[in-house]
Design a protein that fits this description.
This protein is mainly alpha-helical. Helix content is 68%, strand content 4%.
Amino acid sequence: MPQGRGQLMAVLLRNAAPAVAAVRAGAYRRLAPLLATVLLLAVPGGRWNVGGGQVAAADLASVVLVGACVALLLRGEGPRLGRVAVLVLGAPAVAFAVVTVASGDPGGSVPGFVRLLQTFVLVPLAVVVLLRDARDVRAVAWAVVAVALVQGAVGTWQYATGAGASYMGQNVRAVGTFGPQNVMSMATVVAYGLVAALCLALAPAPGASRRWRGVALGCAGVLAAPLTVSFSRGAWLATAVAVLAVVLLAALLGGRRMRRVLLAGLGAVVLLGGGAALGSGMVGERLSSIGDVAGTPDQSVIDRYAMWDAALGMWRDEPWTGVGPKGFAGLRDTHASVALSGGSDTAGAGQEFARQELLSPHNMYLLVLSEQGLLGATVLIGAWAALLTAGVARLWRRGIAVDGLLGTGLLVWQLVHFLYGDTGGPTTVLTAVAFGLAARWSAGPAERGVRA
């Protein structure tokens, strides 16, 4: 092994002790379902799937995760949830049930109801119950970083060798192991990993060496490259806002030393991400297309605005309870304008050419409004706003903590990304874990262990 690589491995092994010890100290069995749910996102798409590819390995692991949560609660070993946690997790469940029953096709809305429960109630509740202290949070954060590094490495290789998904006539779009049908999934995982690594660097474990903080910052910088070549405009914007939010919070709550670390970390991210951007004129074109609405936008932008109009039309027809979960896809054509192409072309990354239907408005807020009406939108979006407000307020009172930075940073990323995307695909379970981390910090029980 080359000397430089050997030294890096030595640093990793020596400084990984705090994270390993956190899991080893009686938490293996409790955290195993949660860590498995995250780590199984590294499994190549199409493996261990059931139901025609609709349920992936990570989704199956999330069922075990929820079961572990239920078992702890039945044995009386789970933490006592506060009224805020019950409200932000319980109220959406009631709203989901009401809009499902009120829909024109309750039977057809049941799958959507189950998915909503999984994403915004059951998995977040399991995360709140299973995580006990900041050491547990660090273990989950490093699992997210590990998955992001794996997917980012695959995506970078796809871009460099022309083995990625088709983009502008070339197979250069980084999609990781998720395939061209899920072009947003790798960008989501990598962005989560970048934010998690930054939070780990800003709030290292007690007693951790400076080198370990450098490793975390290095991971954040490395992940900027695959995020860039994912060509995901929504992920770029969401990551920029989330990183800015985390850095601003850390700068306000930290001292001069913290600001030096922030400058170093941001410099690494800018250098690596900017290097990838300079190496490809496609990145610049993609960036310029973000604001190209009044001019000549590409077909993806035209389709997105047509679907947004369709979602608003459905809401106007059913303003209080919407058309029901999963109702947008069935009613899309009756509300969409003729400008909508109805599908996007997918190819590359080992897949043949296929036409993929556009079955959602790619805006979570409009999707909730159209399918759940004012009732569901008020309850669900209100719960997100409550989590964000309470999380920032708690950080302000308690100072820098890894669980606070991570929960707030990932929540900010998700809420911004929801302007350009929605739930769906293999990374939905990771979205659920992110909401759980936010709920644990903002509305969960008081921490009874080691803090950041």
